[in-house]
Automatic annotation (TrEMBL):
Subcellular location: Cytoplasm
Record's keyword annotation contains Aminoacyl-tRNA synthetase: no
A Pfam family recorded for this sequence: Dala_Dala_lig_N
Identification of the protein by name: D-alanine--D-alanine ligase
Family in the record: Belongs to the D-alanine--D-alanine ligase family.
GO biological process terms on file: cell wall organization; peptidoglycan biosynthetic process; regulation of cell shape
Single GO molecular function: metal ion binding
Lineage: Bacteria, Pseudomonadati, Pseudomonadota, Betaproteobacteria, Burkholderiales
EC number(s) from the headed UniProt entry: 6.3.2.4
């Protein structure tokens, strides 16, 4: 990575908190990013969109934003769109890629169209969750299966269903977080994650992390607030399998039009070592338990250097064109 001219970055807002169900995690991510940027001499400041109007970013002279928001109104293209209108460059994916990646159903449709492996699924729209329809899900996907909100993250509202009689309650729980519900075939095997940095042909997949959860599972509590989960990086997978996981991760990232950074979550099927893509995170966690910094460290990139690299790559999808000349012809 080439040296970054810190002064040229200008006044920087670290967007954190927000109004999604992942607010608590975002505050943790943002605090880490803010401290890292300050330690590198960046003129960085915390900014919580749940407490302040985004228009204040323009009024207060912010030159760019580091988006440390997670979930809706932070990772779904809405904040990105507002920053496009304000003309303030930001980290991570643009409006369209953010919006698509936030919706796991839309993401699956694109991946399947590209021939990328992802578990079979049933989408239950908000007006298609009657008892009869819900009752058919287990027959369509088999058991066990996973029920989750398609536009949430951090394992919020997710249920592993092992009996057909449990599907209704799982759908009701998920619908409390998102009007639509995603039911997905369960892949028995190991959990993996693979981060990506960069854009287009220059995007690079970082080392794969193998996640070994405790018996209680890789839930919200264990993901962020305990040390019960083991994260193996190097993954311990064969070099050939690691390269294949990195290949499909890069393909999945590019298919969605992501840029800056992202992190694919995958399952590795125990029976045949086939990887399956679950989702793409376009504003991954940056907490003490987070996985992108862990993988970056394994490839020689410190947390501070990672934050600086992401900030330096901040840009707009559609910068405003130069004003037309007013000279007469």
């Amino acid at each position: 990575m080439s040296a970054v001219d810190v002064k040229a970055l200008g006044r920087v807002a670290v967007l954190m908190g927000g109004s999604s169900a992942e607010r608590e995690i975002s505050l943790m991510s943002g605090a880490g990013v803010l401290q890292a940027l300050l330690s590198q001499g960046v003129d960085a400041h915390a900014f919580d969109p749940a407490e302040r109007e985004l228009a204040e970013l323009k009024h207060e002279g912010y030159a760019r934003c580091f988006i440390a928001l997670h979930g809706r109104h932070g990772e779904d293209g809405t904040v990105q769109g507002a920053l496009e209108l304000l003309g303030i460059p930001y980290t991570g994916s643009g409006v369209m890629a953010s919006a698509i990646a936030m919706d796991k159903v839309m993401t699956k449709r694109i991946w399947l169209a590209e021939g990328l492996p992802t578990p079979r699924y049933v989408w239950l729209a908000s007006d298609d969750q009657g008892a009869e329809r819900v009752g058919r899900v287990s027959a369509e996907l088999g058991l066990p299966l996973i029920v989750k909100p398609p536009r949430e993250g951090s394992s919020i509202g997710v249920t592993k269903v092992v009996e057909a009689a449990q599907v209704g309650a799982a759908v009701a729980l998920s619908a409390g977080y998102d009007a639509d519900v995603l039911c997905e075939a369960f892949i028995e095997g190991e959990e993996l994650t693979c981060p990506v940095l960069g854009e287009g042909a220059h995007a690079v997949a970082l080392p794969v992390i193998r996640i070994v959860p405790p018996a209680a599972g890789y839930d919200y509590q264990n993901k962020y607030f305990t040390d019960e989960v083991q994260y193996l990086c190097p993954s311990g997978l064969s070099a050939e399998l690691e390269r294949e996981i990195q290949r499909i991760t890069l393909a999945s990232y590019r298919a969605l039009g992501c840029r800056g950074w992202g992190r694919a979550d995958l399952m590795l099927r125990a029976g045949d070592q086939q990887p399956f893509l679950l989702e793409m995170n376009t504003s991954p966690g940056m907490t003490g338990h987070s996985l992108v910094p862990m993988s970056a460290r394994a490839s020689g990139i410190s947390y501070e250097a990672l934050c600086l690299q992401l900030l330096a790559a901040a840009r707009l999808d559609n910068p405003a064109p130069a004003p037309l000349s007013s000279a007469g012809g």
